[in-house]
Amino acid sequence: MYTAFYDLSEKPFSLTPDPRYLFLASSHREALAHVLYGIDQGEGFIAVTGEVGTGKTTLCRALLHRLSPGTEVAYIFNPAQTGDELLRAIHAEFGLPTAGCTHHELNDQLNQFLLRMKRADRPVLLIIDEAQNLSRDTLEEVRLLSNLETSTSKLIQILLFGQPELDDMLDSKEMRQLRQRIGVRWGLGPMTATETRDYVRHRLRIAHGCDRDLFSERALREVHRRTRGVPRLVNLLCDRALLAGYATSSLSIESATVSQAAREILGAHRRSRWRRVFFRSGAAAAVLIAVLGAMAWQQSAARPPWEAPTESAAAPPPRSLESAESCREPA
Question: Which residues of the chain form CATH 1.10.8.60?
């Protein structure tokens, strides 16, 4: 919609990962260097964690382009499955048969495959993305895979990408055996203000074909202030700001436009959150009223008919529904 107006060949802030738009901030470059070092040194386990939208998938794609030729890679995305299902998914990635195989046979097949790759001098890498979705039992199954080794080296290297919940799992007492096997562990951080500015200009340059400074300096500072340098949020906000600029025929994006776009995005989020809170509170209030009403009915039914409440213990006169609703605190 706005691409022709701003002389762009395509939307520069799409959320779909595109290697042409690859931009590595300092945190990503350091993480990539550590991961490549760990792979080169034959570390059995490597873990990279980061908040939602900080660029873990981008880092993973950058890694795949930098692996040595001949590397066998199994890439498992969003592995919310049992240990046996995960093992079968790994077999499918390596092109190994799974039909009719028992768990023991699957492990034996994988071991034979890894030995063949070792003799052919071909490294084998297992990448598990969104690893925070793994159960503890499945993580234990992954740990057992690292036992496949020769007397001198590991037969398979395992790289875990996940959100901070993965750190919590790895730091737990139950996962201490796996934690002790992790040779490289890195946490991704957000972009700085300077990196956010360069990131926005980089994507605009790719979409335009040359430098295209559509966002003023103040607008770029506002983008970083609103997003805290999280790449996915930067994409969302800049896309909405360009749409708002197109709607008002603005040839450049100023900080006021960015602020307006941020209020629209955050406002929708807040309305959705408060709507959930309201319905949950309303449901809880309805249950409480029903329970109290049932208790009151049971007490009145159990009272002998000749027992009348004393004047001091008499219940207050009932209020009308309108009065009760007006006095009730909002949920």
Answer: 192-295
What is the topology classification, in CATH, of domain 26-187? Rossmann fold (3.40.50)
Cα radius of gyration rounded to whole Å, the chain: 29
Cα–Cα distance between 158 and 178 in angstroms, integer? 11
* Residue among 143, 130, 131 nearest 175 (CA): 143
pLDDT by residue for the chain (331 residues), tens only, comes to 899 999 999 999 998 878 889 899 999 999 999 999 999 888 889 999 999 999 898 898 889 989 988 899 999 987 767 888 999 999 999 999 988 889 899 999 999 999 999 999 999 999 999 999 998 888 888 888 888 887 778 899 999 999 999 999 999 998 988 888 898 999 999 999 999 999 999 999 999 988 888 999 999 999 999 999 999 999 999 999 999 999 999 999 999 999 999 998 866 444 444 444 444 445 445 545 655 555 555 555 555 544 444 444 444 554 443 444 444 444 4
Kind plus residue range of the DSSP H or E element containing 288: helix 255-302
8 Å CB contact between 63 and 75: no
Non-local (6+) Cβ contacts of 76 within 8 A are 86, 89, 90, 93, 126, 127, 128, 129
The CATH fold of domain 192-295: Helicase, Ruva Protein; domain 3 (1.10.8)
Q: Where are the alpha helices (DSSP H) in 25-163?
A: 26-40, 56-64, 83-94, 103-119, 136-145
Contact indicator for 28, 188 with CB cutoff of 8 Å: yes
* CA nearest to 49, candidates 126, 131, 125: 131
Residue that is written with structure tokens 């909002």 in the block: 330
Q: Give the C-alpha distances (Å, rounded to integers) separating 298 from 272, 295, 302, 303.
A: 40, 5, 6, 9
Beta bridge partners of 126: 74, 158
Neighbours of 232 (CB within 10 A): 17
Q: Give CA–CA dist 263/320, Å, rounded.
A: 41
- Which segments of the chain belong to CATH 3.40.50.300? 26-187
